[in-house]
Fold each of these.
Amino acid sequence: MIERPKVDTAYDENQIQVLEGLEAVRKRPGMYIGTTSSRGLHHLVYEIVDNAIDEALAGYCTHIEVDILPGDVIRVNDNGRGIPTGIHPKMGISTLEVVFTVLHAGGKFGGGGYKVSGGLHGVGASVVNALSEYLTVTVKNEGKIHEMSFERGNKTCDMHVTGETQETGSCITFKPDSEIFDETVFDYDILLTRLREQAFLNAGLKITLTDRRGDETKQAVMVYDGGVRSFVEHLNRNKTPLFDDVIYIWGKKGDSIAEIAMQYNDGYNETIMSFANNINTTEGGMHETGFKTALTRAINDYAHKFKLLKEDDRNLSGEDVREGLCAVISVKLTEAQFEGQTKTKLGNAFIRGMVDSLMYDGLSAYLEENPASAKLIVEKATTAQRAREAAKKAREATRRKTALESASLPGKLADCQERDPALTEIYIVEGDSAGGSAKNGRDRRFQAILPLWGKMLNVEKARLDKVYSNEKLMPMVTAFGAGIGDEFDISKLRYGKIILMADADVDGSHIRTLLLTFFFRYMRPLIEEGHVYIAQPPLYKIVPRGKNRTELYAYTDEEQAEMLKTYPGAEIQRYKGLGEMNPQQLWETTMDPERRIIKKVEMKDASLADEIFTVLMGEKVEPRRDFIEQNARYVVNLDV
């Protein structure tokens, strides 16, 4: 077990500082948890778990247990010191009640209860309480077991002692309020990903997630003595590392600590995850900037010093040295300043210089001590540089060609009349036959059609320079009008909705996956900002017998079964492809906004999405086979 130095300040009622009372959280929940969708629902769990992790950072908690109980009730149990239960000196009520009913009441506001903290202990607890149908808290401290309960933020009983114990810790059980949240069903995999991150970031801390819903109990026990090094190994497990080492750099300045772990793989994409006080800073910040600057400088200095780059060679760019890089940056500091309410970007300026200096010295030392690995890194970066220059030339050639042509849009694009992107949509259609039906069946006022043709490139296995020469991808880039890669500008997007319309079979699924891989790797804002949709064509055409032979359509096997109950003996046609439908049928079933079914592509977790694309579309076969074996039972309508 990793031993952490314990804070020497007492943790009792005197350390809980009150800044303001609990306001109308239930009226404006988005102000506190961002959204009432699935993301906000899971955020409730993170708020409670983060408080337990703060106890681990303080040197007390060693085990956190998260249970998903029947009815989607959450129970979080830790063996920390237990939330203080004495009478609060300012409020005159039990401190436990203060923590769960007063916003901005906690041990992180100057009371000395914690040196380093990610969450805002008290803010999280009170907000979760306000947004729960019911919440019960049990605290073990000072030799006693204390209990208190609430409903929708209001206490239903005062804190009372229910027994004696020599153990310490807090146990919080809550059920999210269906009056607040759009959905109240927890996703085990989403919680698993987040909790695994926390276990990696806090070496030696044991976190157990157990799903007790259903007949079979699922459980994951996570404890990683290797910390962020183990995190990088986990992120790279489906890829082929350039060398076995995980480079690890650690340093401290005052009360601030920085950890960096990194390893290169033979892929073309970079994966950099940064954290501040265990919070995933998805928008980066000063610590990530310091890391990137030092990485580029250290590799260039080494390459020139040991003649791996010639004197007249241009320096490697940051993009070059980060190709195939997998890195985790974790900083812990007092008074962390997060930009934005969602706390996704670190703003403390001093941490940039600290990480820069630490990273440069540590990486420079590693490169000199490991010349074989250093050579592989520099060679990969120089290859990336050549590919980037080739991509630049191809991009410029494409621009020149476009400028010389009378019409800059792809020849097979049937554009729409409307020019306001908020009102337009483009269908990416598999095959010229279906493309022809779509062009004839569409509403040309706002619907554009682009048929796919030529060979589809799997961008997971190719660099950007190959994209520019691909006859299937580049027409899309030109039609969208927003560019590609680091030049992508979503403000120039010509269509508000990009709808993928492919056959409902294995080939159609493969094409959709290839396109989504392309969007994720080179046009990610399309997905992040909700512009990508998948059309749902019908699986069956059903024609009742008799005089009433109106064509009906079923989109699932269940719908087909229900229709056949109403129209027994009806004629059934299983569509094998979009090309089997005439323009009118395609409009009625798949393109008419009043009747169609389209599904928005959303990304709940970028790191999990990155992992899935690597598994499904990457070079290694074993991870893909494992994925198929684990998920085969969920497949329906594979290819009828």
Note: Residues 108-113, 403-407 have pLDDT under 50 and may be disordered.
Amino acid sequence: MKLKEQINLYIEDALANASIKVENISVSEAGKPEFGDYQFNGIMPLAKTLKRNPREIAAEVVSCIDTSGLITKAEVAGPGFINLWLNDSWMSEAAGRMLADPRVGVEKKPYPIKVVIDYSGPNMAKEMHVGHLRSTIIGDTLSNLLSFLGDEVIRQNHIGDWGTQFGMLIAYLEEIGLETGSKNLKDLEQFYKSAKRRFDEDAAFADKAREYVVKIQSGDPHCLKLWKKFIDISLGHCEEIYDKLDVNLGREDVRAESFYNEKLPEVIKALEEKGHLQVSEGAKCVFLEGEEIPLIVQKGDGGYLYATTDLAALWFRAEALGAKRISYVVDARQAGHFKQVFRVAKESGLVGEDVLLEHIAFGTMMDKGGKPFKTRDGSTVKLVDLLDEAVIRAKEAIKAKEEYSPAELENLARIVGIGAVKYADLSIHRESNYIFDWEKMLSLEGNTSLYQQYAYARIMSIFRKYDGEIGQTIVVGNEIEHRLVLLLLRFSDVLERAAKDAAPHQITSYLYDVTTLFMRFYEQNPILREHVEESVRQSRLALSALTANVIRQGLSILGIGVVERL
């Protein structure tokens, strides 16, 4: 059971013993140690209803709080708040159990659900660029988090592999030959530019490209073979990126636009049967109450739109996959689109009312000048180039490089560099735009992954110097140990809240608090010095081990590795 839930139960018992009923019992973390560890502020609304002095009610509740176990002290504060201090002995035992637990005290959900998380979503006609970075990182982190908490997570990579541009691309692939084309496709961006140039300059080629679009859609074996070859090579580019980023997306997670192609007429039929479709200027639309612009699902020429595919995907994910939470990690600029699509899906019955649909929006990555992140010549930054540069810069930032072999240094630079890119993204509120700053993200100071990795490596160095058995007993002996243990015990609560809010930055903020407090603990509480009693040393070693476990597990959820030496 999470720490906050346990404290809530103590308050609930106290309220019952005082014959006082309060709805939505919840305690909050106190801002400063002198105000306690937690605070209950549910008395004020009740006082108005009972027409009683809130401090008198609070005093009654305090007199009924059991202070022999989890809570050691409770005091009335302010106009009717109750400050709570936790028992050091209880915390010591709880920390020991947490240290012995391979899941670091985080229980799996008793009632897990199926969750579909749609993220990354590259276009097979283009190489992945920085615009795909945030969706990929945030989506993978949320998938890791919900999986760790016990939900059955179905990762979905909704790739763009359908549309008029593919007729042009496979016509060009055929023209230059499969063998030559396969080599040229190593630079997908240049391949696309070359094909587009042929399309713009040669009318006969353009006609052939349009003809091939129709043939792909009608299932022509030759065109489908070329198309599948192109998609296979393009997916290989994506897999290279996913491997560099260490994200958990594979071919089995791909659900391309083409997958839903045969289901699109069924979507139109379902909407027609519900009486939700209206024809406007030849197009089939759904008009939503309160919305000026309708959702167009079929053009006058019979063609379908992104909205139609998204409705088909929602239908499939709710009905065939059985998802109860469907999350789209997509740019904030698509908010209006998803708002309409979700409404139509629910109001038409394509998705049940018991299914949570959410657009997990995120902001734009900016340069230091506050403009969208571009190359010096103004073109889009290829993601592979950015990640390679991250590793190069990390190698330069690592001190004492001579201590490592070339292979060790390369591996260390990869963990540090890719971790820095991920953490910089995840450490801000996802809906905010953020400034991409190499110096800041690779700094040993502030809320960075390198700061976390350094703290973990420092703890590992303590264990190497001690070179002995470390026990499982933690004894809270002073104020800073109390605060550090309390923070570690909140780990499960933090993960639960981050999962509910789809907010990875809550995890990074927590980890930063943990490492910052551990550094103070380390400075103020000697561990390996000769004058330290062995029982105290063992407790502080165990507390350091627990801190390391929390850092490692937290970073693992973020998709970031740790290192033994740094």
Note: The mean pLDDT is 92.
